[in-house]
Amino acid sequence: MKILLTLAVTLGMTGGAYAADFNGLSGLTAPKVKAAIPADGITITPARVFRSETSKAGPEKVKFGFVSEAERNEYIAKAQLWAPEGSLNVAALDFKKGPFDPLKYVPEELVTCKYIPTAVAYEGETPSGKTPKFKCEDPKGKKLKIKYGKDNGEVQCEVAATWIMTAIGAGADRMYPITLTCPDCPSDPFVSEADPGAWVNGQKVATEDKLGERIEITANSGVGFDEFYRIEDRVGAEALAGLAQFLGNTDNKAANNAISCEKKDVVADPATGKAGCLKPIVHMQDVGITFGGKALYHNKRMNFESWAKEKVWLDPAKCIMSLNEVGTGSLKGVDASGRNLHQIGEQARQLLVRRMSMLSRAQLADIFTAARAPERAPMHSAEEWADLFIRKVNELRYPLGENAGNFSCLYDVVPPNSAQAPAAPAAR
User: Fold this and answer.
1) Bridge-partner residues for 179, per DSSP?
2) Which of 360, 294, 301, 302 minimizes the C-alpha distance to 324?
3) Cα–chain center distance at 15
4) Which residue in 40, 177, 214, 420 has its CB near the most CB atoms, within 10 A?
5) pLDDT, tens digit, for every residue of 148-169?
6) Angle (nearest 5°) at CA 114 between 109 and 119
7) How far apart are CA 216 and CA 71, in angstroms?
8) What is the pTM of this model?
9) Phi first, then psi: what are they for 31, rounded to 5°?
């Protein structure tokens, strides 16, 4: 089967053979304008089609149905994971408002909405996951996904994680910390709808806008880190896995990660009407269990002292990162190519250090303030959270310590079958 994509697919990628924008990282080459023939024989045609009236602004909307496994694997192979570094202007971002453009809400903005019963909102099913959530509709008819709960740490850590990810160029949903008025909402909609109108107005919640439409073979199939061996952008893949470990993203099962297509990149084959994506993006979509430490079930999410105790490196000499694994994780063990999923190469390490260092202490404090991190026990100020983040970046920067001399990871880019790694070279 052929997936006909415009030349933008070839020109739009970062990393691997497409990584002209990684600012001079060695081993990465500029894109070539020709058809790409993946190993499985599926052809991406740099051609004329996939441009129809349905891809322009207008009443007709192109929607993805489920794709074949071969199509999905090709999208994964060609996916973008990071925005070009040259496109970032982190210093100009105002995190007292938010990192998104356009900006839908500012922190703590009061939003009013009308409750959507679960049977309608989820088409007769129940919301996924174990943390409180529901859907409602604002006065303009926009449907909102609300995450709530005074003791629900996901409300805080998803805001902090997605704001940081967005700032440094990793794909992420847009999370807004708002206060909500919902006159007809039940008091606890995730548990029961028996008391409509009992919602305590002005509750602190978070609302989510998706980055794009998920490209899937079955409902909620996602993409696991153990499938990242398919991605041609090897540096970007290692860096995204490294970011997941840095943030302590233990609930990293495939369903919580996505290959998505932004609305602007969804186009239709004029012959069949079938949707295609000009620039697929692989990203962490659910980062609701981050900034924590080992607990009986997952992390103590958004827990200062627990995250402070977690190490960045398990084996710093070999650039093997540390992550408390749980049963739902796909970032563990060895992938199908034989790579250690916790190991990153020097290029990925430098990418992470460089991008995370773009955030100033003041900006980080604003991020953790907006995320309401200081309200999570044990209480620590936003500035203390910022200092902890910077300390961890320095651990990433100096795996063997600041006084250990020059350091380079065991591999520039981690090769297949690296799980049986040779001894690490001495620091130089």
Assistant:
1) 110, 204
2) 294
3) 17
4) 177
5) 998 899 999 999 999 999 999 9
6) 130
7) 9
8) 0.84
9) -70, 150
